């Protein structure tokens, strides 16, 4: 049957468009995806690629005339078919955009009254044949407007398995109301069975009688709708609505403080690779010989970072307009990821603690952070922060300085790497740390020196046990 | 009940029929003094003598033709091909004489005979000896095509084949001659055109036959571990085909996978898919998939052959797909 081609919405804000130029004429065979017209929108002139295939029976709209989105512009069908049978001038209810805007739909009816003059068709036999073949190949592709088997009108063929169609039919359910879980959103038997279990989703006519909202349970999943884009088989992708999640207090705090930090603190980032073979061995030996806790590599990093801070007091500081405050104590905050957010409880006096004590503290803070049993005073007071994402396989990253501190150490994964030493390639366990710091407090060179100290401590880690 | 290998069930079927009907005789390469290339005719020469157990030269066209002539004259030959791959040499005899003489002579002559032997790929036999012939023969009106996967089916169907009034292609498997199973001592016949549900289930119908049966059963076992219950239908008789059994199962499960030896284009697998979509369209929840050879001549190299043969893992992947599991 003949298909009415309507003016497409080519941009989000497009209300109306002008056919700048027709690229087809009456009698042409059109393939799906073929450019059939240049259309001027509010933004630009764009090529209109046909959603439909068929022979051009009629061009409804002349070039240069402004039309509302959804207005009929052409009719495709089989050669010899009566274009007016498709009802081109009188827009039908199945075209949703027109149904939305009845006042605009009246306009194209006038436009349709003066069809474009058909141009001569100097077409070779071969071209016609080739076009026919491709048109035949496209034939099963969905039509923008088609009529369902029972004569009810739908917006496009909904992908559904045959048994799903039959079940929906038998239970008087509308396929369009059922979310498809199969490939490309195909509605499969399980989806229909679920819909049956949920109770009847009445057809539109029945819905009007019973009230619009009664038949859809409020708590049901967003059903998704068919997007305008289609896959290579012409089946629409499923578009689902956005979801707004309320801000938790923790999210609000993170948003406020991170926003403040990025606005106020000029960040500088320096990355240092550190060979961790000895640190890894030391930790293994430590865990074999020391009872009462198991130290992680991160505990070693915290200890080394704290000792290095004692040597570089400027890194353990914060900025005020009246002067830079170098902190007397070293309290290293440890970033702990929670389900929705993170908190940074400090290991207090970390520079003076043993590896064992740091390990015990970190474990305790981490456990109680996840239980949400830390007291407020246990969550504040850090002078520097260590954030480790190595366990996720992150090699290196940049973090944001916590307001009230001058730097945060972003720690990546320890990985086996090929390293050149004395002209030879050797396998080494390497880790990359990035010192992210407030450039107002100190400069790149000071940051580099701090990282050198840190590297020395971690590459010759026995010093950490003194 | 005695436990027999498929080769013994085949021998017993031939022996019983030769004892029952003196018109039945066996002919083929190595069937006599060597007792059969796969020992399916063990002891038959000693028992029946060289007049009824005949060693032929390597001339498939010749002895297939002699068999057809003998059948036209009232005997009931069993012609053994050392493999159905060699039946390609006798294809014209089977296609144009065995299949057509009853039709062309308006029933004046019939061809009541059996062509039997191993079919399809075995293990590293190369491209010319690893082909599945049911796809050629099941295409031809006038022939009946049987493929067996258990000793019980082998005996019951071979006896039916020997007694049939028309030419029957009886397909066995080199790799499955030692498969064991119970075979009743008392006589029984299995009619053609009856599929056998080798494993009941309700989530996915797996249709198979011959060498595909163990593959499908293994895949069904793997699927069961994932809580997917497969119904494995062994067609046994490919022509005539038990369409009703296939359709009844698909109406129950709404999904089907066909597992078989043979290439994807044309052939029995396509035929089954066509019947399902024709007769159970409104019951399908997923496209019907086939698991068969890749569309290539069979390579000799073992690693490549393994990639081409239908495997339980490939069958399981298809089962998952039609069930929309990952």
From TrEMBL, chain A:
Residues 83-93, 131-147, 203-212 have a biased composition (Low complexity). Residues 94-107 have a biased composition (Basic and acidic residues). It is an enzyme of class 2 (transferase). Residues 73-163, 203-223 are annotated as: Disordered. Its EC number is 2.3.1.-. Residues 159-196 form the Peripheral subunit-binding (PSBD) domain. Residues 2-77 form the Lipoyl-binding domain. SUPFAM superfamilies: CoA-dependent acyltransferases (SSF52777), Peripheral subunit-binding domain of 2-oxo acid dehydrogenase complex (SSF47005), Single hybrid motif (SSF51230). Keywords: Acyltransferase, Lipoyl, Transferase. It comes from the Bacteria. Belongs to the 2-oxoacid dehydrogenase family. This is Dihydrolipoamide acetyltransferase component of pyruvate dehydrogenase complex. It comes from Nannocystis punicea.
Automatic annotation (TrEMBL), chain B:
Its EC number is 1.2.4.1. Keywords: Oxidoreductase, Pyruvate, Thiamine pyrophosphate. SUPFAM superfamilies: Thiamin diphosphate-binding fold (THDP-binding) (SSF52518), TK C-terminal domain-like (SSF52922). It comes from the Bacteria. The keyword Oxidoreductase applies. One of its GO terms (molecular function) is pyruvate dehydrogenase (acetyl-transferring) activity. Its cofactor is thiamine diphosphate. Residues 4-179 form the Transketolase-like pyrimidine-binding domain. This is Pyruvate dehydrogenase complex E1 component subunit beta. It comes from Nannocystis punicea.
């Amino acid at each position: 049957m003949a298909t009415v081609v309507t003016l497409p919405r080519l941009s989000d804000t497009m209300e109306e468009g002008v056919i700048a130029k027709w690229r087809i004429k009456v009698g042409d065979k059109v393939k799906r995806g073929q450019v059939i017209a240049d259309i001027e929108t509010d933004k630009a002139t764009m090529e209109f690629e046909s959603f439909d295939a068929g022979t051009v029976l009629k061009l409804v709209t002349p070039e240069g005339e402004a039309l509302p989105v959804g207005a009929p512009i052409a009719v495709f069908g089989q050669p010899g078919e009566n274009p007016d049978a498709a009802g081109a001038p009188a827009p039908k209810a199945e075209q949703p955009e027109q149904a939305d805007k009845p006042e605009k739909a009246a306009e194209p009816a006038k436009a349709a009254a003066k069809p474009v003059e058909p141009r001569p068709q100097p077409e070779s036999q071969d071209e016609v044949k080739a076009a026919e073949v491709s048109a035949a190949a496209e034939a099963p592709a969905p039509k923008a407007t088609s009529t369902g088997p029972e004569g009810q009108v739908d917006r496009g063929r909904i992908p559904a398995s045959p048994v799903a169609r039959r079940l929906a039919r038998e239970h008087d359910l509308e396929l369009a109301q059922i979310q498809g879980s199969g490939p490309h959103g195909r509605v499969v038997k399980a989806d229909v069975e679920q819909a049956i279990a949920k109770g009847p989703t009445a057809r539109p006519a029945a819905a009007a009688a019973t009230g619009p909202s009664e038949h859809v349970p409020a708590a049901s999943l967003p059903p998704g709708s068919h997007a305008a884009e289609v896959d290579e088989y012409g089946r629409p992708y499923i578009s689902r609505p956005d979801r707004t999640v309320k801000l938790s207090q923790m999210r609000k705090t993170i948003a406020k403080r991170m926003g403040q930090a990025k606005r106020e603190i000029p960040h500088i980032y320096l990355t240092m690779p550190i060979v961790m073979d000895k640190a890894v061995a030391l930790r293994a030996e430590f865990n074999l010989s020391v009872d009462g806790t198991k130290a992680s590599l991160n505990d070693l990093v915290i200890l080394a970072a704290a000792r290095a801070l004692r040597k570089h007091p400027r890194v353990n500081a914060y900025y005020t307009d009246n002067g830079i405050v170098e902190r007397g104590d070293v309290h290293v905050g440890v970033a702990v990821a929670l389900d929705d957010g993170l908190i940074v409880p400090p290991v207090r006096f970390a520079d003076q603690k043993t590896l064992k004590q740091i390990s015990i503290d970190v474990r305790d803070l981490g456990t109680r952070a996840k239980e949400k049993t830390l007291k407020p005073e246990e969550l504040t007071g850090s002078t520097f922060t260590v954030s480790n994402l190595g366990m996720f396989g992150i090699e290196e990253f940049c973090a944001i300085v916590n307001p009230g501190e001058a730097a945060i150490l972003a720690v990546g994964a320890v990985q086996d790497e090929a390293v050149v030493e004395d002209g030879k390639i050797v396998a080494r366990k390497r880790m990359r740390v990035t010192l992210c710091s407030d450039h107002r407090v100190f400069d790149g060179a000071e940051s580099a020196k701090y990282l050198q100290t840190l590297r020395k401590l971690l590459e010759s880690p026995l010093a950490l046990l003194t | 009940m005695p436990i027999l290998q498929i080769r013994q069930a085949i021998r017993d079927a031939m022996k019983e029929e030769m004892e029952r009907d003196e018109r039945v005789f066996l002919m083929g390469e190595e069937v006599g003094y060597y007792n059969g290339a796969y020992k399916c005719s063990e002891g038959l020469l000693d028992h029946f003598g060289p007049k009824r157990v005949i060693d032929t030269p390597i001339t498939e066209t010749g002895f297939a033709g002699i068999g057809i002539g003998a059948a036209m004259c009232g005997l009931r030959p069993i012609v053994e091909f050392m493999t159905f791959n060699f039946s390609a040499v006798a294809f014209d005899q089977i296609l144009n004489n065995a299949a057509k003489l009853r039709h062309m002579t308006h029933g004046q002559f019939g061809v009541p005979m059996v062509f039997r032997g191993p079919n399809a790929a075995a293990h590293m036999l190369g491209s010319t000896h690893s082909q599945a012939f049911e796809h050629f023969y099941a295409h031809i009106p006038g022939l009946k095509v049987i493929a067996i996967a258990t000793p019980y089916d082998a005996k019951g169907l071979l006896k039916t084949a020997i007694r049939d009034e028309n030419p029957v292609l009886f397909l066995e498997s080199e790799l499955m001659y030692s498969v064991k199973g119970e075979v009743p001592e008392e006589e029984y016949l299995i009619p053609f055109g009856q599929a056998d549900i080798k494993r009941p289930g309700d989530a996915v119908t797996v249709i198979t036959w011959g060498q595909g049966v163990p593959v499908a059963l293994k895949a069904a076992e793997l699927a069961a571990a994932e809580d997917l219950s497969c119904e494995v239908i062994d067609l046994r008789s490919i022509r005539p085909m038990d369409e009703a059994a296939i359709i009844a199962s698909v109406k129950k499960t709404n999904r089907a996978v066909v597992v078989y030896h043979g290439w994807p284009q044309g052939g029995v697998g396509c035929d089954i898919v066509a019947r399902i979509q024709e007769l159970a369209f409104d019951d399908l929840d997923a496209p019907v998939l086939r698991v068969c050879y890749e569309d290539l001549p069979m390579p000799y190299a073992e690693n490549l052959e393994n990639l081409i043969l239908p495997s339980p893992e490939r069958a399981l992947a298809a089962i998952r797909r039609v069930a929309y599991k990952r």
